[in-house]
User: Which sequence fits this backbone?
């Protein structure tokens, strides 16, 4: 079980309805194996996704409840006109059918763990 301090941040803007962000609240770097173990404990199948700096994913949506946890690097997500950045350890959950964009920002690759409910 992943035992770390986290701070939950619920987005309340109408444009962001269906988006939930959990911010990493520890000085320790998140460990990929512990993140995987945590998702296993949640009963979720997961995968590793690696992006190069500048990779951009046009507006899209998923059929299921999408979960992404940033392991390394930074990812910018956009929902409507709102944009927000996730860094190492941050987790985003999006309800099905939430239209969003994603972009790897910074000068290094971005590693995320993804899962769907």
Assistant:
């Amino acid at each position: 079980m992943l035992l770390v301090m986290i701070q939950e941040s619920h987005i309340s803007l109408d444009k962001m309805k269906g988006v939930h962000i959990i911010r990493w609240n520890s000085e320790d770097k998140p460990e990929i194996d512990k993140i995987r173990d945590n998702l296993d404990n949640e009963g979720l199948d997961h995968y590793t996704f690696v992006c190069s700096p500048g990779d951009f994913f046009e507006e899209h949506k998923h059929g299921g409840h999408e979960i992404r946890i940033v392991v390394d690097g930074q990812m910018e997500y956009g929902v409507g006109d709102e944009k927000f950045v996730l860094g190492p350890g941050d987790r985003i959950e999006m309800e099905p059918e939430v239209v969003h964009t994603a972009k790897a920002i910074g000068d290094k690759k971005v590693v995320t763990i993804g899962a769907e409910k």
Summary: The first strand starts at residue 6 and ends at 10. The mean pLDDT is 87.
